[in-house]
Design goal:
Length: 74
C-alpha cells in the first residue's frame, strides 16, 4: 500500500521510500524515514497535495510523491 491510498487518521508505518535517491534524501530531511509512524491528516481536492502527521508535525507533499512511498498498517 502507498501513502496515497492511506485512509484518513489510520496509523501506518513507512516501509519503503522512493527509488529516486534525490527524492528519498529530501524526504529523509523532512522526517520521512523507514519505520516512522504516519497518518493522513488532509487530502486536497482535485488530486492536490496531501498532508500527513508524523513526529508531532503536519507535512504536506504532492500526491505523486505519496504514491511512491510504501506503508504498512500498525
Amino acid at each position: 500500500m502507498t501513502l496515497a491510498e492511506l485512509p484518513k487518521n489510520k496509523l501506518a508505518k513507512i516501509s519503503a521510500l522512493p527509488k529516486d535517491a534525490i527524492l528519498a534524501a529530501q524526504l529523509l530531511e523532512q522526517g520521512f524515514s523507514i519505520r516512522t509512524a504516519i497518518s493522513l491528516a488532509h487530502k486536497a481536492p482535485f488530486n492536490g497535495p496531501m498532508a500527513f502527521k508524523l513526529h508531532n508535525t503536519k507535512i504536506s507533499i504532492q500526491r505523486s510523491v505519496a504514491e511512491q512511498i510504501s506503508v504498512d498498517y500498525l
